[in-house]
């Protein structure tokens, strides 16, 4: 179990006199939950996503983003406490990813001669390696702080987890096959080259496949529904539901439209306006937005302000 806890998040564009975009975002997403983050264009949804992942274009001016991780998220790693809390704003993007935060990258750089399968294996190994380093660093710091501890104490927090450091080609084939079955995807997909011109819909499916392979505790999916025809929307939605149901991934589903929520039913719906969550509710809130647009939320927010 993991909980992503965003509180009072304020952020602006990271340049002198940069525009303020987020003005106090509060949001909590747990493993296994589906949250829809909705709102008109320009309200700050993508900015929120990018700040969670650690995008350097933004400067956080107030508030915090915490990730609470329970021990079972780290199978094979001996963590002393039953739950650990990480301050994500202190961590690099790859460290956040190693701890289980996923922000899809729909358009992986089109590198000549690299297949999808190699790209995915590299991404997985990068995550595992970063995770190892993260815990090694912690261990080194603790060892320093605890110098008088007896010299015979040598249990590494990573022992028994990824000793080899890498998932090899053969092992990865097995993982890939399992994930592609989970997502009901065609195996030939992974054999294609990154520069082979994936369609818009295929790029979105790719994003779900990345999430399946990396097994994040929280996945942020930004407008994964945009530009999809109804069949692709169904496929991508089935994949998102599988991430939640089979891997216990918590989903922060950013969308402008209610349509995908007919297929991926949210437990919670949040409406972002002017860099803040103006209203939260259940699935019925999304339906109301579909019927009535966003203006009434703004009016209601003004009334109570
Ligand atoms: P949404 O995803 O809800 O449509 P965004 O988070 O992309 O909204 O953008 C919110 C506002 O912040 C917009 O007015 C946008 O122009 C501005 N903005 C976002 N990123 C930057 C940036 N890197 N530089 C300047 N302005 C930005
Ligand atoms: Mg956006
Ligand atoms: Mg333990």
TrEMBL record:
The keyword Cytoplasm does not apply. Residues 4-299 form the ABC transporter domain. Keywords: ATP-binding, Nucleotide-binding. CDD domains: ABC_FeS_Assembly. PROSITE patterns: ABC_TRANSPORTER_2 (PS50893). Residues 134-154 are annotated as: Disordered. It comes from the Archaea. It holds the Pfam family ABC_tran. GO terms for molecular function: ATP binding; ATP hydrolysis activity. Residues 134-152 have a biased composition (Acidic residues). InterPro entries: AAA+_ATPase, ABC_transporter-like_ATP-bd, FeS-cluster_ATPase_SufC, P-loop_NTPase. The keyword Cell membrane does not apply. This is ABC transporter ATP-binding protein. It comes from Natronomonas aquatica.
């Amino acid at each position: 179990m993991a909980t992503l806890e965003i509180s009072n998040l304020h952020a602006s564009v990271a340049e002198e006199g940069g525009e303020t975009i987020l003005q106090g975002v509060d949001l909590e997403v747990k493993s296994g939950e589906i949250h829809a983050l909705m709102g008109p264009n320009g309200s700050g949804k993508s900015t929120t996503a990018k700040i969670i992942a650690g995008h350097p274009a933004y400067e956080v001016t107030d508030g915090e983003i915490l990730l609470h991780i329970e021990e079972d998220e780290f199978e094979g790693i001996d963590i002393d406490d039953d739950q650990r809390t990480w301050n994500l704003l202190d961590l690099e993007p790859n460290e956040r990813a190693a701890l289980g935060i996923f922000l899809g990258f729909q358009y992986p750089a089109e590198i000549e001669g690299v297949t999808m399968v190699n790209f995915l294996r590299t991404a997985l190994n990068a995550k595992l390696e970063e995770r190892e380093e993260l815990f090694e660093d912690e261990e080194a710091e603790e060892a320093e702080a605890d110098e008088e501890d007896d010299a015979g104490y040598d249990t590494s927090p990573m022992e028994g987890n990824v000793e080899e450091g890498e998932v090899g080609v053969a092992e990865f084939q097995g993982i890939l096959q399992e994930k592609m079955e989970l997502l009901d995807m065609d195996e030939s997909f992974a054999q294609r080259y990154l520069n082979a011109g994936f369609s818009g819909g295929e790029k979105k499916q790719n994003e779900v496949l990345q999430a399946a392979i990396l097994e994040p505790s929280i996945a942020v999916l930004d407008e994964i529904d945009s530009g999809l025809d109804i069949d692709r929307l169904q496929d991508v939605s089935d994949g998102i539901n599988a991430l939640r149901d089979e891997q216990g991934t918590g989903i922060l589903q950013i969308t402008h439209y209610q349509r995908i929520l007919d297929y991926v039913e949210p437990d919670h719906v949040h409406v972002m306006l002017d860099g803040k969550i103006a209203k939260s509710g259940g699935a019925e809130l999304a339906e109301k937005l579909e019927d009535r647009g966003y203006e009434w939320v703004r009016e209601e927010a003004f009334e109570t302000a």
